[in-house]
Amino acid sequence: MSSVKRIRLFITPYLGLIAAALAVAAVPLVTPDRYVLKVLVYVGVNVIVIAGLALLFGHAGQISMGHAAFVGIGAYTSAYLVKTLDAPWLVGVLAATVLAAAGGLVLALPALRLRGHYLAMATLGFSEIMYVVFREARAITGGNDGLGGIPYPEVAGLKIDTPVGVYLLVWGVALLTLLLVLNILRSRPGRAMRALQATENGALACGIDTVGLKIRTFALSAALAGLAGALYAHGVGFISPSTFGLDQSVIYMAIVVVGGAGSLAGPTLAAVVLTLLPYADALVPGLSKDTIAVMQDWEADIYGLAMIAVVIFAPAGIGGLLKRIRLRGAGEVRS
Amino acid sequence: MTRAAAALLVAVCLPVVGCSSADTGADEGAEPYRIGAVLSLTGSYAGLGIPEKQAIDLEVARINEAGGINGREIEVIYEDDATDAAKAQAAAVRLIDEEGVLAIIGASGTGHTVAMRSDAERAGVPIVSMAGGSVITDDFSEWVFQTPWPNRIVIPFVLKQMAAAGRTNVALISDTGGYGVDGRDYVLAHAQEAGVTLVADETFNAGDTDMSSQLTKIRAADPDAVLIWAAGKEAAIIARNARQLNMQQPLYGGSGIARQEFIDGAAEAAEGVRLGTGRILVPEAFGEGTEAYAVATDFIARFEAEYGAKPDIFAGHAYDAIGLIADALGRIEGDVTSEALRDALEETDGWVGIDGTFTYSPSDHNGLTEDEMVLYVIEGGTWRLDD
Question: Smallest CA–CA separation between B111 and chain A, in Å?
Fold first, then answer.
């Protein structure tokens, strides 16, 4: 491999990130539409969650059917601290992230002794338990009907209460998250995760502390979900249990599968596309209301079809396709 | 790659082909007034949202055929909140920011109305709610109006009826949604005034499919009667379970169970259930010859001709919501904005609807009283005025 190619392989992922940053910055210049920006806030929040889940499932190979619960822990923690207890916004967000990480840690300690289906069952149980907590701890969560009027983000006396401000905040955090995850993947822990995913015994034999690695990855992934939840709560201003239920956890997993295990760009792209699907009318002019209604009714089915299509036609997901295109561009495809 | 991408593309694009040619009927150059509606068309409150949509469609068609308002038609943009507070909030944001509606009708549920509130206030768009929680107008917002009789009107009425029938030891079973919680709070606070004692207080969640454990506890408390305070489809399960447990106590309820879905769902077990609500179920209660009677019978006849079934109270709430908005639009002089519409709604004075005669004021956005209440008993699969 020539040194030019080596540099190119090293830089390519960051190029993607830079391109994404430019695109993020360009959106408010292109469209002042409040609704588009609000929809893109949902997308940015999901990108943060997916970055963490791509690390956990896509690279370390550990399944989580309870990620929406971590998002919920973050959302309710920050909302309660800032709205009810009048804590500063940054404190709320920090507490949300830490508490979600702690939740991840507590779940990971026993659960990561389990593998495959059993781990899926354990995390699924956690998701259901948290759903009940969100509904029943009414003094904190507002119960079934949720918590409204959550204050906008406020940093050092500066209130971020415009759609553009919230959009830039959420996407700024999302890009930093992607950078963080990318760097982890390109350093020793990332390589250890890939070894773990390929063969746990092999990884152990190479001197990797697989249990510690799994627990740290799980906690980090949960922390990112909690951070996303806090941003969601303050950006949208309203949260209720149904947003953090099992079906949302399944959607997160579906996004990572469609995006492709072992990739970061793939799941990120899948998060953007699949989150935008029900809001296509805001972005594609001329789509009729009925079309959107049909798409919203069939949202779960579209996700399911996309997953089946990926498993049959492109087992490596969008990430695998991107890689193939890149390698083909570099003239290195051999069959 | 190409096949997978093509499959996804086809899945996304197929519906586009089918539905893009609808929209835009006759318009004489003037833009229609755009009104949003957030209804529970699916989920636990589907039995509320569907008749509400039917009533709105019926009234909008009538208004537009008669030449619209100020020569402009009304266009209603519907959103389904799937009986989910988060979806109701998202729907309100969409209607305000994407559709630019003048006002929002909805939601069907109390919690869902409350969820939409802060976005409507921030944007300055009036909401006309069709939900019966007291909190909607007690926790006052200058932007939120309400068409049904709130719990603060219905509950004292029902409790007094129970006391008058000598059923003073009352067991309550309520849901944990906005309407149930709101109602429970009201019962707890006002039972004593009405002359009843609460001997059991049980709750359930929307979506629960069995109430036997709550009812077993209620049976153990040996009440004279059981009061059901819920708006979802689960109320029918309570009636059925009570029958299965061989409970002899009469069941009472309010507006939340005043619908055919309850009778159909509970079947035999609905017989003898008493409920306090407005007059639309038996319009003779308005008093023949009154303006309210004429309004109600006209609406019932048109609704039945269109849909083949009598309207229930929820259709009435929706008739009032769109009617109040149309009335207010007609009174606006000058530019029609959300703000002007809000002001006009607040100036509503003596508008005769289905739920009563509405007079709003800067401190009262419901404008109804206990005088609108009557007590029904379910017999032979339908309602009859209790005597």
Answer: 5
